Amino acid sequence: MSPSASNNNESSPPAPRHIAIVMDGNGRWALQKSQPRTMGHQAGLKALRAIVEHCGRIGVKELTVFAFSSENWNRPEKEVNRLMDLFMRALDKEARELHENHVRLRFIGDVRAFPAAMQKKIAQSEDRTRNNDRMTLNVAANYGGRWDISRAARALAEDVAAGRLTVAEIDESAVSERISLGTGGSPDLLIRTGGEIRISNFLLWQAAYSELWFTPVLWPNFSPDHLDQAISDYHLRERRFGKTSEQVHQKAG
Ligand code: FPP
């Protein structure tokens, strides 16, 4: 995964700062080719590599991808094991390349459920890339939006119990400070491939005002051109954050 030098056209509007993606459709892609589902995940990793590179080129600063949900443990054991093998290999090879290209790698989710060797590699790759500031790749692994919100609620309760916070101080920013990706971690654009029109427990808090973009394209077939299409559509949206269209235009004008 190696984003090359930015060639963002001067006249085109700036890319969204933060894009999130539900990478769905690996299994169906493999099925269409009469291949095992694992091959779909492998092809999915290849597609992700191309998208990371493209994001780097066009100036996206943060990319958050749903790699493994808290519900994915319910898949056949063989598929889960193969996914773990793929993650392990990716953590070796891709993390090195990301680092060489000044990309920070971060994991969100309850990684304590993963094998110890994988947890170690996750921690090492996060440590190694911590100071990279070209772009951040957030990988959601054993992640669920409800888990995230519950964890933030627990952290708030602990802080109140310890006297570090009063109940009256609990507001949206107090929650944002304790949730994955933190304050300012909201995606501008959330993409889901694979044809389903739902969020599936991804970034429930953080995506409150994200622009949503759905495509039937299966993730392994999702290319930089598809991403450009999503971004063009995003630029046609009017982000009002609860205000009226007139207010938005007054401010812009
Ligand atoms: C959903 O497609 C995809 C996954 C559960 C796995 C996604 C993982 C990758 C793309 C590899 C990324 C690797 C790293 C290291 C970030 P699905 O299997 O649910 O597809 P289906 O809906 O067609 O069955």
Number of strands: 6
Order of helices and strands: EHHEHEHEHHEEHH
Approximate shape: globular
Structural classification: alpha/beta
Counted by DSSP, the helix tally is: 8
Strand order of the largest sheet: 3-4-2-1-5-6
Question: What number is the mean pLDDT?
Answer: 93
N→C terminal distance: 40 Å
Which structural traits does this protein have?
253 residues, alpha/beta, six-stranded parallel sheet, binds farnesyl diphosphate
Write a structural description.
The protein is α/β, with parallel strands linked by helices and 253 residues long. It contains eight helices and six strands, in the order βααβαβαβααββαα. Strands 3-4-2-1-5-6 form a six-stranded parallel beta sheet, with helices on both faces. The longest helix has 24 residues, at 77-100. The radius of gyration is 19 Å and the shape is globular. 35% of the residues are buried. The model is unreliable at 4-8 (pLDDT under 50). The chain binds farnesyl diphosphate.
Summarize the structure.
The protein is of the alpha/beta class. It contains eight helices and six strands, in the order βααβαβαβααββαα.
SSE blueprint and pairings:
Layout: E1 18-22, H1 26-32, H2 37-58, E2 62-69, H3 77-100, E3 103-108, H4 116-129, E4 135-143, H5 145-161, H6 172-178, E5 189-192, E6 211-214, H7 224-236, H8 245-252
Helix pairs in contact: 1-2, 2-3, 3-4, 5-6
The structure holds farnesyl diphosphate.
